[in-house]
Protein: Threonine dehydratase
Organism: Rhizobium azibense
Amino acid sequence: MTTSLPVGLRDIILASERISSRVRKTPIIRSDVLSERVGTAVYLKLEHQQITGSFKLRGATNAVLSLSAEEKARGVVAASTGNHGRALAFAARAEGSTATICMSRLVPENKVSEIRRLGANVRIIGRSQDDAQREVDRLVQKGGLVAVPPFDDARVIAGQGSLGLEVFKDCPDAATVLVPLSGGGLACGVAAALKAINRQVRIIGLTMERGAAMKASLEAGRPVEVQEEESFADSLGGGIGLNNQLTLSMCRDLLDDVVLLSEPEIAAGIRHAYRVEREVIEGAGAVGVAALLSGKIEISGPVVAILSGRNVDMEQHRRVINGATAPGRKDAA
């Protein structure tokens, strides 16, 4: 099953070794409350404790370390919904390179300001990831910058796959792994790693109902554009690219299911993580907890939910904790 994949276990092992001194091995903990609720052991992979606050540092670091000296000197560029941009800015600065990050107006200001703090050049373009990507393409063609895509890139996917190796090492008996799903880099990397070791493990992609580009593309059998809307899970927004080369086919071949979550369900996941697990996470990082609380996934055997990021606007987080069920500051808490 995994031998014909564009990113395989060997690629992931090499990436894990390459980035081992640059990223944090994040812990897995058992959630007693969630375990009691679903009737089987539930473990939380605390990837939100990663250095830049999300899993994105793994892929960005592997990509930057794979560049030649000449490419690093030219500088890197990417479109981002926030977390990839932060990770790429951090990884580029560590290697003496410069990063330019293109984002839409839907990216929360807390993520934009942190990317600026890390020394990256920031460009705010349009209201969608596709708009931002068009600016990336222009800068590559006219400015000579080196593109480091947020997900549709073999180096990035392999880097994200290192997380899957950690899941297996810490929880080898996992029967189901719940993975946040946007462009598919994390889901593909984790699934490629785990299914190469154990074909029976179930990998479930989780995303929001509002603008689920990968879900729509899988159903259409080709990349499709979707309208981007505000969501608590803003990191899961954006398209997969109409010229998608890797993640659509890998998600098709590796994911056992894709489950959509409503905004109230995502909010419930954020609240549970804070009130019960004592973890501050963003909406995208809460979808695994949200799926378990909602009962939308049939669980048998140990399950691992990946808490993928913590880079939440704290005002938004306060609103959710106080009862908000829809994004946007006009919604009363």
The longest strand covers residues 202-208.
